[in-house]
Amino acid sequence: MAVATKAVPAAAEDKELLISGSEAVAEALTLADIDVVTAYPIRPYDTVMQAIAKKIANGNLVAEYIVAEGEHSQFEIVKHASTVGARVFCGSSGVGWMYAMECLVVTPPLRVPMVALVGNRALDDPGAFGVEHNDALVVRDLGWLLCWIDTSQEALDTTLIAYRVAEDRRVFLPLAISADGAFLTHSQALTMVPPREKVDAFLPRYDRGDLQLHPDNPITVAPQANEDWVIEIRRQNNEAMARAVGVIEEAYADFRRVFGRGPENPWFEEYMTDDAEIILVGMGTISLPIKVAIREMRAKGKKVGLVRLRWFRPFPTDRLVAALSKAQAIGVIDRDYSFGSPFGSGVVANEIRAAMYNASRRPPLLSFICGLGGREVTLEDVNKAADMCYGAAKAGKSDAKTHWLGVRE
Amino acid sequence: MAALICEIVYRGIFQKNLASRIARGIVLSARKSGRWGIAFGRYGDSPQRNGIPAKDFAIVADSKEELEQNMARYEPKHVDVTICVDDTLSKGVESWAWYGLQPINRLTVPNGTVLMTSLQRFDDLLQDIHKKDAPYQLSLIRAKASFSGLWVYKEDHTEVRILGALAKIAPAFLTLDGVCGAIKEMEWGSDLKVESAKKAYARLETREVKLTEGNAEVPFSFEMPKWWEMREGVTIPAIPLGKPKEAGKGYVPERNPYFKKYTTRTMRPVVNFDTCVKCTLCWIQCPDSCFDVMPDGTYDANMESCCGCGVCEAVCPVENCITMVNESVFEDNASQWEMWRKDKDKYHVWMTEKIGDKKATVRSHGFRFRGQYDEELKRDLDAGGVEITAGIPGENAQHKTV
């Protein structure tokens, strides 16, 4: 049941704007012609709600803009709007996202394709607003599609892809786009904004079909159920997540066809990995200091590469294992924590350890935690991680510990 | 391969929009000559606080790779041009984003430029600007600090004057044509603004600052604790109770050892201790508890804690007893009461001079009364958006002449 997309219009041209990651998301939402958006302020997500409000106020977008009295209602409202057939958007950050938790839990089983922006922010306490990935990662087991973006351009492109994927009947799952607070949400970069015709050719209308709440289609959503029903519902959810893999690949291929840009590999970006002895792994804007450090290290003869993970759910197990197993050592830099986890590692490091377990070749894997609470990941931090990876490659084994970088000690 | 890194040092709320427009303008102007660029604010600054010093940055480079190279440090560690849009910041910058006081020229590269809007003389500014271990250029655009609000923007052309001046300072990256083109086509679409940029380009005043010049004060700083030195449970010790000023009389509270308000103020209260009726209103109403109680029952504003909000002036029932005066006319943070106690006649002369200088007392904190924006806008635009008036009358300014 592949989505048939229309032919690409010939004359339409992109325009270049100087916009932040948040404004790029709002540009995409305008192009996607969303119907209902709910808002409740929390930094850094609030930059998106401001940008959308401006779009509506300026007459660029016609949509219901509902300011909720808290994040719980914010996510409830779009959930209901989506079930009647509206294309919806919402988002939050840090503890705001946590306050919506009950609604975040119910959206995947109800198969509500809401698209949310998580402006990654440290969880309280202490009250802080710098980036940590733990907020978005909290929904990793629940049936949310989860991806991380790196630039304003990727923010715009991924938002369009997000609607295409989430609203595909084979998927119908909520999708959270994670954007690093400050580094992406608040930085203005030159971004190509496509014309409406191209977007129309790429993104079909949201059609909820037999799941749409409508007087002509009498249904009950979310009846109470006992143990006779629950595990089957979970099994359905698991199937939808599995089907998302093919839908994502299809969407990216079509995106490239229509817009003439975008990655061939949707799942992760590989930077100088072809001949890499050491491969570092990270998510989000951490790629910038890592890439610059890699260029400097390569000038000194150290063959280091980067895998920047875009999609965390579904997790690209096979492709990632294939990319990483050729290295002599792997260094995973987590911008999150998982206290008491195996080796005390961050979430991404332990996911990759699990993914590598059945691989025929398992290079030593080192785990790093860095840049929490918005602290800068410095070139020195990256150099230190790479050097330790070289040590592990030489020894042929990792030290089974987690190293915290950039902490005052 | 080359890049231009600019920081814009501004005051929270009052200049947030101004700084953001300057940063955008730099990138868009450089884009006119094919450069790549990025504009961003120092996120930790929390510029939604009145008057708090904060920073925006703009980086432009020949190629995308060169741009990345210079963005690898999110907060640049050195800048080619420090743009300062309020000259009271020449005393330094202590924001929410870091601890301790940074001299305004700290990040400026050797032979780089500090570009400031100011009506002060070079030598007066250099009494405030800290000494630097390298020579640099000090460039002035003759203008008062442009203050507005978070939700309103004052169209007094400060943003385009800065861009015009930058075309003079860094012509390799921002040509005057590029600046004018960006103003006209990309951002503001105003011929008047193009003229303002050209005039700023022509009128920019620049002088070299030598190693020996500047304020010799060692800026307030301290070392942050290691993770294992910090108390657990996100817990910090309370600030201890204060002590009597002397001989069991008066009261001086203990104050936050990690954060001082030396650079948060644009004005400070000057107190006439002879006319003070000891009513306690300034002491009670001060939102920062900045007043020390003196043994004689008068109140002395402690400059460690005063953020210059002017509430004391507003609540004081005695005419001319508390007067807010432009921060830039003060050389130090010493106690006024001690000066008064030592020599009352000398203090009276000093005080009369400070509060009698209308240029210094009419400095605005932003918009204090309804309609002020319209009034000022009209005045600025009638003058071609270029000529400078002496100052902005604040709400209490009219009866503040002695």
Strand content of chain A: 15-25%
* Helical amount of chain A: 25-40%
Q: Specify Rg of chain B, calculated over alpha carbons.
A: 22 Å
What is the total number of structural domains of chain A?
2
Q: Mind telling me the C-alpha Rg of chain A?
A: 21 Å
Given the C-alpha coordinates, what overall shape of chain A results?
globular
CATH structural architecture of the largest domain in chain A: 3-Layer(aba) Sandwich
H/E element string of chain B?
EHEEHEEHEHHHEEHEEHEHHHH
Averaged pLDDT of chain A: 95
What name does CATH use for the topology of the largest domain in chain B?
A: Pyruvate-ferredoxin Oxidoreductase, domain 3
What is the CATH topology of the largest domain in chain A?
Answer: Rossmann fold
Provide mean pLDDT of chain B, rounded. 87
What does this molecule look like?
The complex is a heterodimer of chains A (409) and B (402). Helix content of chain A is 37%, strand content 18%. Chain A has 409 residues and is an alpha/beta fold. With 402 residues, chain B is α/β, with parallel strands linked by helices. Mean pLDDT of chain B is 87; it is low at 384-402. Chain B is built from twelve helices and eleven strands. In chain B, helix 1 crosses helix 4, helix 5 (176-187) packs antiparallel against helix 6 (191-203) and helix 9 (336-342) packs across helix 10 (344-356). Chain A binds chain B through residues 18, 20, 44, 125-126, 129-130, 181-183, 186-190, 288-289, 291-293, 295, 374, 376, 378-379, 407-409, and chain B through 23-24, 27-28, 31, 36-41, 43-44, 65, 68-69, 71-75, 224-228, 234. Strand 8 of chain A pairs antiparallel with strand 2 of chain B, so a sheet runs across the interface.
